[in-house]
Design a protein that fits this description.
This protein is of the alpha+beta class and about 150 residues long. It has helices at about 5-40, 60-70, 80-85, 135-140, and strands at about 50, 55, 85-90, 95-105, 105-115, 120-125, 125-130, 140-150. The strands form 2 sheets. The protein has a 6-stranded antiparallel β-sheet with strand order 3-8-4-5-6-7. A hairpin with a 2-residue loop joins strand 4 and strand 5. Helix 1 packs antiparallel against helix 2 (about 60-70). The relative contact order is 0.16.
Amino acid sequence: MGTKTKEALYFGAAFLLLSTASILIGRYMDKKQIVEFARKFIGLPYVWGAQCPTIGADCSGLVYMVYKKFYPDFRDRTAQAYFNASLLKDRPEVGDLIFFGTGPNDIKHVGIVSGKNTMIHSGQSTGVTETNFNTPYWQNIFVSYGKITG
């Protein structure tokens, strides 16, 4: 192999490495930004079927408002539909979704993982809050964590 070929391969490999690192860092930063943006809705009242930053939102409406800011093609769905469109995970990362219900075919609630054992969600009695999900109530109805894939 000639010197110019080696230089071209080296440059290509370095570019690929930097591009990959940039994408990975961008994805990590997006997740932190997702949570920071979701926190801006804390105190918003619960309104069934709504997704309005001035009127209120239900659980899936909150997820839609938050994710839509970072992913323009993100679609509005029910908690069950978000579950069905997610890649299920055993361990959550900040910005992942957390699902609750009686089982995988009966998802009733969705929140956004905001930290270790905490989520931001819109509850009927609380509106949008940041809540510890490591309690008997939430653990009783916990179904899975998920990452949106489409």
